[in-house]
Every structure is written in structure tokens, then in C-alpha cells.
Amino acid sequence: MNYIDDLNKAFESRVRLGIMALLLVEDSVEFNTLKDALDLTDGNLASHIKALEKEAYIEVQKSFLGKKPNTRYAVTALGRAAFNEHLVALEALLKRIK
Fold first, then answer.
1. What value, to the nearest 5°, has the Cα angle with vertex 72 and ends 86 and 55?
2. How many Cα atoms within 13 Å fall on the side-chain side of residue 88?
3. Which fold has domain 7-89?
4. Calpha distance 62→76 (Å, rounded)
5. Kind of pairing between the strands at 29-30 and 58-65
6. 63-65-66 Cα angle (round to 5)
7. Mean pLDDT computed over every residue of the chain
8. Which of 9, 40, 42, 94 is the most buried (most CB within 10 A)?
């Protein structure tokens, strides 16, 4: 069995791992909170968010706070399942290496 094949390519990036980890802890997180927590530029975070959105692992929630636009992100059920499967595959890989 090749445990690397079970790893999800969408989560190979440390940034995407960080995004998913933060979103799994909170119901939803604002763009700037993610950016600050992961120490990223707007463009870098946006590109990783788009990749996760494309896979339908996260969803965008746009609203206004007064007249100010507010963008929040949340993990979808599909994203939660995919990330959990990825973590199981990582654990299996680590057990095999020991």
C-alpha cells in the first residue's frame, strides 16, 4: 500500500493546511483574520482560498457591516470530510515510518 497516494493534494501546501485548521476551529473566519494569523499577503491568501473554493472545501460568505464589505470563509461538509481523510492518511504514513 502506498500511503502517499492517500494524501490529498489540495492540502499539500502549509498555507492550505493552516487555512483549514483555522476554519475547523471556528464557524467562520474573516479574510483579514486569516491573513494576519498565517502572515500572508492579500494575493497569496486569495490564491490559496480560490484553490480550496474550487474543490468546494470552503465557502465564501459576503456581507456588509454598515457600509463596509465583510468577507468570511467557512469549511463545507465536503471540506471537513476531505481534511479528516487527509489527516488519517498522514497518521497512517507516520505510523508506517516508525
1. 35
2. 7
3. Arc Repressor Mutant, subunit A (1.10.10)
4. 15
5. unpaired
6. 120
7. 93
8. 40
